[in-house]
């Protein structure tokens, strides 16, 4: 696919005149072609107006047609071939193996949402039978969910495929029946253009209404801001920094009509190393931890950035293993030079904190754009008294907080702000303590793991990739898995509608053979 | 029950020192006893801190115990006897028959939520089986929903029982597992105190943790504001004016940790009189409309404040019937003198609008605190050009908008802002036009009715008492019906937890016999 650097606005390519820029290779190399043109605010308006005009037709297409569109996007992504992961590799520095598996995940995610649409899970139909003999009589009441309207998506830097132009936000919004306008992440414009063209082709091939999808490059922040403020936009998906997420959230709230903004922002993903587990397998846990810490150069939302454990010989065995493993793992590229710069500043801050010591990792890596795993250590008293120690340092770093007793461990848990995940390594002898921690962790995190590592987020029904503030802007939702679609839907109740006027999902005959809640019970009736 | 005018803070009664006030009877009469004491901000802090301390114990009680508490509230409300509707009658002016049925609805609502809790609908359990042979293997992933935390509820003036201290917001939040702090509405403090004492007694009798419920009187706005701002509060339910709802919403958004505020604010509930239906039964529709308009002195959220129809003889028949019926209905008391004052100002504004004529109703009622039904008339061109004609006038008034053709009717529909309901009166010959309107109305309203009247909101699974901005602050939710509970819950995913540590709702053996989504399909397995 030949890149042009143009915007995608519905079925039209157009050159953005809001400032030219080049892609930056993660390794610092030159990427002269193409010149990307940033959008201007009139492009935002054009894309949003087109999305609004496409909305009613798009949302009323049959489930089958909408599902076919989602699957066609996956096919068009695969049809690009290796050029897509290769471009993503150059732009992000992520390894090819990771990017081809991320591509598979992206395609699988589209297929999952296609299946949900066919099953009517987006509509979640509910039927309550009339009670004509009751006093007062009860009417015939039915409910389904309909899409909110056009959705803006802000692609993430750390997943150029699975959390970007055709990632989870886009797939779930399109599945819900919402047109999507993506603001491409400036760290991978070429990857974004390729993916956007794939969606454009899929939309044309499956005869979707023009405007169901657009993608804009942005040379500065004004485009993203204009998108969040545009009256046609009814919800926003964002994955990125806390600072960026909160700024956009405040804009979305300040609109004359406030709209939901789903920001997945930051998390340090605490890992509790319980004593019996450490005693039984300190070395094994340490090896798994070192691998989890350095996966994707530590640039995963669920990177294990905090360890909590009791002092003692088992913990020293754990730490010694980490200290011996980390230097054997070669430093790997970070996504951008800016991210690498922030990483080094964060590591420097920790290194100069008198209450923190560096206990594992290669000696001050300064290789161009690369980072290796680092482990710092402090004690619970220091952690509890210094809020800066809870700040996320985006990259392969973690802080071990050593506690004197369970009470202190519990205090550390209670002290934490909202997280995407919390992990416990434990053995049956640790269950009593785990029972004391679990109620605290449920309030702190969206996902609780046992004897596993938080990196690796499965796309399935039960997944929650979300969590209390400030890990996300809305703890009631997930940005990964089936329930991501719920973010873009609202319920409508139909009272006494004649069969002829009811939507197919609610007709008495159940022509789509959907699972429906009927008089309180799930049934798949005929 | 002897009223004391004291606050309810957990199991303690305490006199508010933030300003004394008396209840005002709707008919203007004196209500000297008791003197109510408004809370001070330290009372807010005490109640919120107690709620927070009760939360973890309360949310972890068995479903059976939580359900028993909800049912006990209903029993304690009934145990007050007629003193409760009698007091509500004096304070609100609403008829006794309406208040005894509202009491029944309040109790039924508590029972409904008790049943939902027993069925585990609040937890909505999801199980995805592990796939150990897949590459990479999939972990064991399960999900349930847990409550958000302490909830603040602002009681409504127009339903002193069903949308107030023990109303839908309180019942659904308690059912979700959230402690509740109610700010009592100043229009019915005695009714509020009685109901709060009933909840307090139910909590004591069923041995709930102290702090699961509190009720505060407020002498001014500072108490409500302090409640919305308090860091322990994790969600807010509000029913009231648009101005009040938006002001509190902005406060909730501006917190360091933003929290959801569910405000149900205002709606004029458009009713479309389609031509074949008018032709067939103009008089019958008119009679039903006049009854719906004047129910509760028009002070229902779903009052039919807007009629849209084509000009012609059938419409004149409709209008003539309304004009002959309305004067036969005696004016009834409004909730407060302030509401009556606003009503008269609103009616005056419409009466002086040169593009509006008054076509039905008694000649300028000026009876103390009372209002009778009024119908105004304008044309579509005037309605489309004057935004003030879309303002809600709270009370038994409605505006008939006469359209020249279907195109104009559709323009009126598209012009509307978000509504709780939209109604169509139609016959089969009207279906083609209805098909043109329905997609517009779905985007405008939370509930669509055919050949029915919007007043009367059923408490059931399919109900949506909500709608797009500005009818509510969050179109994704309902404040009436089973799904009201969803507002106070968030999902948590459990990855690889041993059976011993899983919550009962997620154990493999399904000991609570719940319906669960397992590998994509609803099952009630053993």
TrEMBL record, chains A, B:
InterPro entries documented for this protein: Ald_DH/histidinol_DH, Ald_DH_C, Ald_DH_N, Aldehyde_DH_dom, Aldehyde_DH_Superfamily, ALDH_KGSADH
Domain of life: Bacteria
Pfam families hit by this protein: Aldedh
Record-given protein name: Aldehyde dehydrogenase family protein
Gene3D superfamilies: Aldehyde Dehydrogenase, Chain A, domain 1 (3.40.605.10), Aldehyde Dehydrogenase, Chain A, domain 2 (3.40.309.10)
Keywords, in A-Z order: Oxidoreductase
Organism: Acetobacter fallax
SUPFAM superfamilies associated with the record: ALDH-like
């Amino acid at each position: 696919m030949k890149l042009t650097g143009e915007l995608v606005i519905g079925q039209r390519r157009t050159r953005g005149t809001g400032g030219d820029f080049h892609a930056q290779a993660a390794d610092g190399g030159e990427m002269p072609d193409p010149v990307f043109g940033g959008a201007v605010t009139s492009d935002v308006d054009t894309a949003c107006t087109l999305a609004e005009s496409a909305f009613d037709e798009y949302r009323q297409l049959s489930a089958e047609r909408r599902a076919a569109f989602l699957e066609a996007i996956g096919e068009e992504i695969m049809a690009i071939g290796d050029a897509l992961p290769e471009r993503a590799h150059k732009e992000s520095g992520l390894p090819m193996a990771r990017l081809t598996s991320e591509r598979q995940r992206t395609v699988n995610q589209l297929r999952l949402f296609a299946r949900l649409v066919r099953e009517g899970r987006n509509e979640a139909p509910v039927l309550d039978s009339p009670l004509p003999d009751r006093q007062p009589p009860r009417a015939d009441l039915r409910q389904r969910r309909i899409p909110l309207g056009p959705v803006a998506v802000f692609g993430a830097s750390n997943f150029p495929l699975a959390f970007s132009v055709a990632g989870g936000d886009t797939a779930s919004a399109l599945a819900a029946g919402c047109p999507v306008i993506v603001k491409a992440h400036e760290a991978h414009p070429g990857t974004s253009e390729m993916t956007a063209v794939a969606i454009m082709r899929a939309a044309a091939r499956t005869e979707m209404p023009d405007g169901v999808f657009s993608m804009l490059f942005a040379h500065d922040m004004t485009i993203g801001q204009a998108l969040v403020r545009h009256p046609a936009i009814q919800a926003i998906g964002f994955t990125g920094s806390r600072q960026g997420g909160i700024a956009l959230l405040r804009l979305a709230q300040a609109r004359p009509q406030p709209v939901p903004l789903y920001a997945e922002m930051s998390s340090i993903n605490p890992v509790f190393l319980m004593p019996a587990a450490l005693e039984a397998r300190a070395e094994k846990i340490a090896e798994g931890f070192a691998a989890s810490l350095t996966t994707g150069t530590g640039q995963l939302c669920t990177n294990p950035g905090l360890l909590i454990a009791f002092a003692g010989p088992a913990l020293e065995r754990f730490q010694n293993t980490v200290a011996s493993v980390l230097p054997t793992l070669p430093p790997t590229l970070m996504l951008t030079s800016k991210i690498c710069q922030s990483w080094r500043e964060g590591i420097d801050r920790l290194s100069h904190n008198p209450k923190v010591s560096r206990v594992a990792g290669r000696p001050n890596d300064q290789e161009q754009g690369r980072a290796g795993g680092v482990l710092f250590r402090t004690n619970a008293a220091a952690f509890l008294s210094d809020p800066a120690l809870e700040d996320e340092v985006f990259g392969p770093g973690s802080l071990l907080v050593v506690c004197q007793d369970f009470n202190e461990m519990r205090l550390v848990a209670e002290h934490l702000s909202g997280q995407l995940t919390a992990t416990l390594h434990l053995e049956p002898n640790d269950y009593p303590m785990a029972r004391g921690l679990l109620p605290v962790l449920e309030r702190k995190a969206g996902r609780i793991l046992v004897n596993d590592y938080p990196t690796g987020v499965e796309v399935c029904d039960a997944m929650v990739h979300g969590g209390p503030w400030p890990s996300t802007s809305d703890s009631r939702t997930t940005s990964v898995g089936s329930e991501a679609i719920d973010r873009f839907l609202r319920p409508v109740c139909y009272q006494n509608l004649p069969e002829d006027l009811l939507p197919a999902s609610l007709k008495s005959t159940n022509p789509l053979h959907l699972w429906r809640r009927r008089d309180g019970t799930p049934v798949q009736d005929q």
